[in-house]
Structures
1.
Amino acid sequence: MALALQTFATVKDANAALKTQGTRYLGGGTLVVRAANEGDVSVSGLIRLTEPSLSTIAVAGDKVRIGASVTMAAIAGHPELGTLAKAARAVGGPAIRNMATVGGNLFAPAPYGDFAVALLALDATVSTDGGETSIETFLANRDGSRAVVTSVSFTLPKADSFRFLKVSRVKPKGVSVLSIAGALELSSDGTVTSARIALGCMADRPMRASAAEKALIGRTLTADGIAPALAAAGDGTSPITDPIASTWYRAEVLPVHLGRLLLA
Amino acid sequence: MAKVPVQFTLNGSEKAEFIDSGTTLLHALRDKIGDTSPKGGCHQGTCGACSVIIDGELRLSCLTLVETCNGAVISTTSGLSEAGVLHPLQRAFLDTFATQCGFCTPGMIMAAKVLLDHTPNPSRDEVIEALSGNICRCTGYEPIIQAVLTAARSNSQNAA
Ligand SMILES: Cc1cc2nc3c(=O)[nH]c(=O)nc-3n(C[C@H](O)[C@H](O)[C@H](O)COP(=O)(O)OP(=O)(O)OC[C@H]3O[C@@H](n4cnc5c(N)ncnc54)[C@H](O)[C@@H]3O)c2cc1C
Ligand code: FES
Ligand code: FES
């Protein structure tokens, strides 16, 4: 079971060490140490970083940068990140939230990754030493990613334009049946002018509900107005089956919960 | 496997050990240091029996590598009683029959302690939220919730 842990002061050195086969980055460890405890022999060494910028949250106006090592508890408790508190609190119980990092959530396979769903709706940018990538590109390519994620950045949404919902069977803490985040802008007459909707558990990683987004443009948030979006909600999804819910169940309830999110 | 030096404060006393790299805090506490109050229920983060308080925050010792605790201040349930007198939470768990087999109890007590440290008079919902990462297979939870509320009341009476 023993894993060698190496600690580095700079991102550059950590990235160099991550090139070794079997080596993984250690965030909060809630997935990677769990895997090692479970006997996952593909992990033989872990890398950790003490670089302080990875643990800081910087808010300047509506621009936010969250270091990859920042925990869900730190986000949930941050006075300027109130709009995201619900998504951060959706992750695990209190002890998990004190450990689970933003960086780790970007790599979490379904049914996990609830916070990454929120970041996808916010069109966040993911940073590494090599540069910046849109979260969508990052998620698509994450399996081959060998560099430390240093931070995520996004524009803070206005409180009423961002919505998040997680459905679980056990309250108050439970693994997701699904999660949905929506960033919506409305014109003064109440019609939707832009929509980004992200889904969790509807594929092996967070994905956008592109067809539903398109179907919302020019519509109002009424039962009739959102009907085409709900009809298109499942387009392109391939929900997971796990002990929490089956593929069939997740597909059946997605439009119901998307409707609740949009009409809330 | 290389041994690495680790130093931290456990329940008020300094500990310094040479430990195999990659050892979990749970393993180090139980098998190396001899504090068997944190329990290994699942080693998966799901049961909360291994919960300890690190630098004031509730953590799962089964998913924490001991090397990341260098310089930390760690509390476990075995450090709660003073001179043979049980901590109000321990007393309340006994008095309200909130412990049966006892396996979940040290983790429950740690989760409850962090809550009461920050919120001396919690609501029932706050207690449920604070214990939401801890599983009990015996009591049905209600006595545990009552124990935490009872301990909070006895704390505030003592303070008054
Ligand atoms: C009991 C339990 C309940 C949970 N409940 C939820 C839940 O409700 N919702 C949810 O979303 N998740 C949940 N999780 C999963 C997990 O806790 C979170 O997804 C968490 O955010 C993962 O972060 P971490 O820092 O612990 O990741 P780690 O375990 O440290 O890392 C996970 C993976 O990401 C890689 N990684 C981590 N950080 C970086 C980085 N900065 N750069 C490059 N690679 C990196 C690691 O190498 C590893 O492969 C739960 C886990 C447990 C054990
Ligand atoms: S043993 Fe750590 S959570 Fe179960
Ligand atoms: S008392 Fe037996 S598990 Fe809680």
Note: DSSP finds five helices and five strands in chain B.
2.
Amino acid sequence: MNKLSQWIFGLNILCVLWFSLLIHQYDNEYFFIIQFIPIILLIVFGVVSLGIILYRVSAFNDCKSAALELQMEIKEAKIALTEKGFKFD
Amino acid sequence: MTLKYSILLPTYNEKDNLPVIVYLIHKYLEISEIKYEIIIIDDGSPDGTLEVAKQLETIYGKDKILLRPRGKKLGLGTAYIHGIKHATGDFIVIMDADLSHHPKSIPEFIKKQTEQDYDVITGSRYIGNGGVSGWDFKRKLVSCGANFISQLLLRPKVSDLTGSFRLYKKPVLEKLIETCVSKGYVFQMEMMVRARQLNYTIGEVPITFVDRVYGESKLGGSEIVQFVKALLYLFATT
Ligand SMILES: Nc1nc2c(ncn2[C@@H]2O[C@H](COP(=O)(O)OP(=O)(O)OP(=O)(O)O)[C@@H](O)[C@H]2O)c(=O)[nH]1
Ligand SMILES: [Mg+2]
């Protein structure tokens, strides 16, 4: 089963659960909320996703030392290669 | 018997970067006593990359530097296929020649590979002390966002799907290339998805990605369109 089918399968199950809630709980005092479950879930999902992404952006290492080290090594390479007879233009 | 590693360097207008990367590969692999060859696949760069490569061949020797140029720019994907055909190593290392990928990681890849006899080792900017350098907030956001969505949709069990600094067992890479359908740079992502599908074992090593110092960035806006297309295709088919 490919990923698309897995998603459709999962969403279907959620839909069925929600419908059965809608049908059986119409006299429930929380019926108003039950009606909006899909939208609530969608919003929660969006907010959580955004949170995860922003967290990862902030945790993304900025490797300044790697860039500096590379600059040094570029100089080193040029000197060593020139000694070996390499001609930079 | 010592194992041999073939490093593929596709180049297009990398005359400033190529000597440095070759020097660094030599520096880090020689001290680790790793047997290697560097295969340079230049696609007729107008800036004279091939002349630079020839000089390097003279300095380091024909057994270390193999020049396998092509007449014109035929793209990165076919450059790898072309390079593999000439590779004599047991393992293939794929990396960019623009110094974004640092050769010091190669011995770490090799060490990781031997730990559990992994089929594939992939460098990751997102784990441990890996990371990027010179990226602004927007670029990080796009990268993390794209990564999050692809993780969600494809669940590849690999933290860095679009990175292209990797080590493969040669037969594994040949098999993967045969299986992959996408062209262009998105095929890096497909390779990981297919590797999972074919039950290959994948190990990850943190890498630092430093933006290119010399030369122009060759990828434009069509990159995003390509990425989305590939993502949806893999989502619906794998
Ligand atoms: N042989 C060959 N090499 C290529 C071609 N296009 C790109 N390359 C090389 O492939 C590597 C990766 O390409 P880059 O242009 O660095 O792509 P990128 O890293 O996604 O983008 P920037 O670093 O921002 O430019 C570099 O070593 C390039 O020189 C091609 O058509 N043929
Ligand atoms: Mg690059």
Note: Residues B 96, 98, 100, 212 surround magnesium ion (ligand 2) (CB under 6 Å).
3.
Amino acid sequence: MPWKLAWLLSRPGKSGGGTALLPVVAFGLVTALLLTVLAGALSFLRWRDELAFLYQLLAVLAVILLVFPLLTLGGSAARLSARRSDDRLATLRLLGATPATVAGITIIESTALAAAGAVAGVAGHLVLGPAVQLIPFRGEPIGGAYWLSPLTVVAVVAGVVLLAAISAAVGLRKVVISPLGVRTRQAPAKMHWLRALIAAAVVLAGFVVMNAGYASTAVAVAFVLGAFAAGLAVLNLIGPWAVAVMGRRQLRKAGTAEKLLAVRSILESPKAAWRQVSGLAMTSFVAVFGGTGVAMTDGAPGPVSGPEQFLSGDIRTGILITIVISFVMVACSAGVNQAAAVLDRADLYISLDHLGMPLKTMNAARTRAVMLPLVLVSLGSAAVSFLLIFPLAGMALVLAPLSILTIAGCLGAGILMVWAGLRTTRPVLSKVLAAGH
Amino acid sequence: MNENRDSIPAPASPSASAAAYLQHPSHPPVLSARNLTKSYGPTTALAGLSLDIRTGESVAIMGASGSGKTTLLHVLAGIIRPDSGQVHLNLPGQSLLVEALSESARSRLRREAFGFVFQQGLLIPELNALENVAVALMLNGTSRPAAEQAAAGWLQALGLGGMEQRRIGELSGGQAQRVAIARAQVTGAGVIFADEPTGALDSATSAEVMQVLLESTIGAGKTLILVTHDDGVAASCGRVLTMRDGRLTGDSAGGVIAAGLAQGGNR
Ligand SMILES: Nc1ncnc2c1ncn2[C@@H]1O[C@H](COP(=O)(O)OP(=O)(O)OP(=O)(O)O)[C@@H](O)[C@H]1O
Ligand SMILES: [Mg+2]
């Protein structure tokens, strides 16, 4: 019964095919990027010399950095696909379908969309292949080492589809338990200043440790890794709080309707606002951290031959790839989340349109609500990381300004990319409003 | 956007004499609809409907579900364009053909000259009561402090003093509806549209909200056009229209409450 209903419901409804396309595209991107990142990382396994371990370690770091935002994006896509069928499901419920049937349909539908996306993603991964194969590491292009075993590809596809099914089930439970009215009845979450205090203590400790003398290389490596982990922890602790503080300051200043709406929607859930852009915070943190290292080795006369000659260039390549992929994911997830939010609040948007709120104002408010934390977060985490390794970073800025500028340029381009991702959701709102006319 | 900033006046509550002048039979009706038709596919929502509404009138629109009440309201307010027919809007000093205006001009007309109250408040959940009302004014270019001051005045007047900082989720249905009434009027709009404004409330709360709505609109010389399923609510309006299948089937004088309010003059 659910299968048949799901099939019937999958025909284009009032909200149109556009909203089905979005999650498919998002799942496709997640799968393509996941496969490509994995392929790149696994290609490092072909080396067996003593430097190979360092490369593999860095690859694992990059994969960890990229997997979390990927999972977040997968979750958003699943929620969007679960949500887009809400209006039709409500009708079904009226017709007497049991909650279990309705749940079944939703899960089947989002799983089907995820499967379609994942298959498209595999195609995308294959298309990306020739370009990625050209990227040089250790002086030679990745080449044939790029290709994954079919089993790995199948496992990734299965993982993405499973993730979608689980997210849909979880998202559904949330919708069933707390419709919008219940959620908004509670006051917005307060962000405690203690977060900032703890974070400041960690940064201070890190600063002291980093600037102490090192007894041996092993201790130095341990310190650097420790500082890296501490930095990420600090970012997650301080992020939501910083977003909330910024929101409260902006709230007082907000002089126009769109500014007021944007700031209020950030303050509604600083944690959610943070989560949406946090992938970027981590990347931006790593970019300054790693970029400084690269700049330092660039500035200093390094080995001109042997396996070490490529190390700093390779790290820079890795950082740039990680930044670009992170931004693509944040841009996608911002787009998908915004599309879901518009569909969620279709009634409200239609009523605002009836009251005469210009479409321009609604779009400006939505864009601002993402861009404000985004800019804060990417600049803020770059600053935290800069502070942690201040003596080095300061020197790098003087000795090798070009490396640092490249990374700054990448961050700037990424911010633009997210903005573009938000722009793609404008037709969703226009369509919603057209349905109210 | 502001090339003809003054073409749509935002009337404050008109003085008693101005109201009397506008209500005079020789003055053109504030809204005048001619032969309106509107179909959705095979469904006819409006089937050649004509109607005049004078300034200061309170008009209740009744009829079975699907008879075209909401569609009529939306056509009169410039939210949707009719398939054929005209809606003339006559404001002091200017006369407009509503459906001839562009999308953005109608949007502006709605935020400057009209006020709306929906069945479910449809307030913005993350804003507090004060901000929800103030936003309507800010959209018209009023500064935030001035808008919030005016909004506070309206909330006070509608019995919501002290609740300015509450979020919408922290208000009862009746209180939220009063916030919506304040939002509809804070711009000084002269014509208020309400689509089943008490449809989601219990009868006691419904009566309270209706009284607030009537006093603040027709009690102040404004025009009120209201869709309702409730005979009691209709009885408080000066005129009751009945609709069936997209046509007017009845047009009668309503209860005495509205007449008393209108003669009682300004607040
Ligand atoms: N956007 C739309 N698309 C298709 N049909 C519509 C649309 N809006 C209204 N209709 C149809 O037009 C007719 C009149 O609808 P309308 O909403 O005006 O009725 P109503 O009198 O307000 O009903 P109710 O009392 O239930 O609110 C109905 O048959 C309705 O199904
Ligand atoms: Mg209706």
Note: Residues 1-17, 263-267 of chain B have pLDDT under 50 and may be disordered.
4.
Amino acid sequence: MKIDRRCFLSLGIGGAAGIALSPLPWKLADDSAIWTQMWPWTPVPADGEVTYVKSACTLCPGGCGISVRKVGNRAVKIEGVEGHPVNDGGICPLGLSGLQLLYGPTRVKTPLKRAGERGEGKWIKISWEEAIAEVAKKLGDLREKGESNSVACISGSDKGTVPSLFKRFLSVYGSPNFMRMPSIQDSYEIANSISLGFIAQSGFDLEHADFILSFGSGLIEGWGSPVRMIRANSSWRKAGIKVVQVESRLSNSAAKSDKWIPINPGTEYALALGLAHVIIRESLYRNDFVHAGALGFIRFRDLVLSNYSPDSVEKITGIKKETIEALAVDFARSGRPVAICGRGHGKAQSSLGELLAVQALNALAGNIGKEGGVFAVNDPAYIAWPAYQVDEAGAAGIKKERIDGAGNGKYGLAKSLTNRFAGAVNSGLPVSLLFVLESNPVYSLPDTKAVKDAFKKIPFIVSFSSFMDDTALNSDLILPNHVYLERYEDVPATAGLSKPVVSLARPVVSPQFNTKHAGDVIILIAKEVGSPVSDAFPWDDYQACLEGTAGDKWKMLNEEGFSSDPAFTAQAVNTSPGKFDLSGGVADLSILFTPVNLEGDPKAYPLLLLPYDSFRIANGYIGDPPFVIKTVEDTVLKGKDILVEINPATASANGLSAGSYAILKTPKGSARVKINLFDGIMPGLVAMPRGLGHTAYDNYLAGKGINVNELIGTLEDPASGLDAAWGIRANLIKA
Amino acid sequence: MSKPDDKTTGISAGTDSTEAGSSSAGGIEKGQGNGDSGFVILFFIIGFVASLIIGWVVFPKLLYSQKAQPIDFNHALHLEAVSDGCESCHLFREDGTYAGVPSNAQCVDCHQEVQGDSPEEKKFVEEYVAKEREVPWLVYSKQPDCVFFSHAAHVKKAGMECITCHGPIGESTSLQVYEENRITGYSRNIWGKNIAGIKREPWDRMKMDDCAECHEKEAGKRSSVQTDKEACFVCHK
Ligand code: SF4
């Protein structure tokens, strides 16, 4: 008798048999199958009651109404609100992705103070009390030294209560330097000042027009209020309304239009004048707004008749004179034609000449202030706060000239010329403290290097950004605002709308981090700075200010989510007949109508770089969230490489082929790019999308592509101070 | 290459013959097998019994961890106090969705302050109501996320009783210990207390087969062409 190997084999077999007859293997198999559903990275939907919160989107100037679906306390989906006057149920990809901004990793979670060098990304957390006290102390010191006017604010918008609180703060504190980020509305404002005699923005009743003549406006790419434009586009399709797109590249808008007229870039003004020539020569204009006897009209008429015949315009624009003649007749003979300008999204300014030439077409067509036409739209009317007392220091400060020059001398008609800001600071105008509100100037102003240099000269920069964006990264103190889905705020939609709407952003979820409403922060800073500044802020907090400002409309705003009552929002101003001055007292019309001489030596830089806007790339304060960046075609962004569009002819002339790398050089800088051949772009042009090449934000966005602002500059329009640069000279060298 | 092969064959053949000589065939012939095979059988039995014990007794103990509920809730007591049965607290919202386990908001109507002398109630009021924290109840019937289950369809439309799936929980005065499957994270109640998966009452288990049992019988629609039963997508959306 001995225990040998067989015994152990037998033990094993017995064990196996026993296990097989127990539930162990079957249960384990079942459990491991379920276990595979439990990977920690598997997204698990939230559980709870489903509710909807009506709010407003602030991610672009569009001003859409949104309805956010919540499960329990988690916001899970953003939808458009049916019946909202701007978007009526529609939403754009950016608006849809707002939750990624709310819950994403780029949020600034608590007030931060810079610890390392600027831009190094080293921060220490500080309390709100410390942060506010520090800002107030700096402000107090500057005021004591009589340097209150060296405090400035760059804001994404100048409408609504929060920007107005900042503006009010600066005014009573003693600084005129409240600036808003540039947009085509800067240009419309100056043009309206000249032709109508009062400052107003322009709104377009595009839904009722029956002929759309667009001078490079991205009707589909998101001009003004993107969802509204998409809806208008569909209504034009349904009604068979003619859309003519004048643009030097086949953009989506051009592709969707009924007629695409390629034009030499930057000569849009000349085409408009050529059209005016034909309309006046053929007496096709309506007398409603232009009196044949008015001096302005006579001067304008003489100019276009003598200098802008279709023949000469053909030479400038490259458009056949027959096309010009036919287009002019088509336009003028339509019942409610409208001409619109502002390239791409309308976030860049254009020269005053271009604006006046295009607005002249509207005036000649007699569609100012009429259904389907152009309206002069005042600022929202509902913000009427009590007057405040200024002390001597404040009064002295506010009287000083603005950093950007707006409102003074030759820039007298401009409200804000933020395009001039970097140049002014670099030339030595002092800015000691800068507030940055809901904007990302380091990224989105042209000529990044100049902007960064200017920022280096500013000793103290306070960012109110909710996100670690390019500007926040380059600031000294971040006082993070709640994201729009966590806060109350009025959202006036003014971007190109003929009937402004004010919507109410309402908190969908409670603040996720230790952030504070920028409205509350500025009130707290004012209280800390003390009298007389604090006296101008009688409200306990922002909420009290907002409710008081909305007055009897508050209930309605809360219930409906918006108000479009013109008495509350903004009045479209009636333009009386004959009051549209085509040459608006401008002494020398020829300054207005000269081609912009782009920066760069044509020999060293034989090509032209043209930035363009895309529906899929957000390029304002907000950059593309992960969902949206995924929608960008690989002919625009491939991996980390940005692709530039060039015509095959340009490619062969420069020894380039599809997919090859090249160095794109401009007088402002150079970048490595990939080549995308595109027949829809004129030879000699290089097109690059705006909105890529962020240095901040998350891994989905940072480091992808090139920021076109690093390659372009600003070019001051001599007639207005506006930025007239629509591109820059460039060269492409095979890499 | 052929050499090592040959060698291997040679060795194994040799081993075989040696083994054969001393074991089974030879052993039986020599009549010495009883003691040896006795051991073999004994070891088989030891292995068999030990693994049965492991499989039936030890394994379930290891598989499940025991967790106490944050509050020991007395269903029976509450059921007496309410007028609408289970639905008084486990209610359907206006939009037809089922609210599941009540949230504090429902409880505070009565329990804003401590009313009785139950230490559990005191704990609930002090730890959760006062601190505005929801109670992290452990849910015995929680199913994997791949399952879409509508209470409304079963209770409102098909008129089923709560007890059919959940058992007479309403009569209990104390909550049972929550046994969590260490591998899946779900409650033992899904597989059933019986480790063999045998059930006596319909509410003893909540696995897919248990749903299917009823669905095969009751649901008239046979929407799957392949199985002639209800299709997978009824529950797995
Ligand atoms: S268009 Fe602008 S406002 Fe409207 S949903 Fe999109 S991002 Fe928001």
Note: The CA atoms of residues 88 and 143 of chain B lie 23 Å apart.
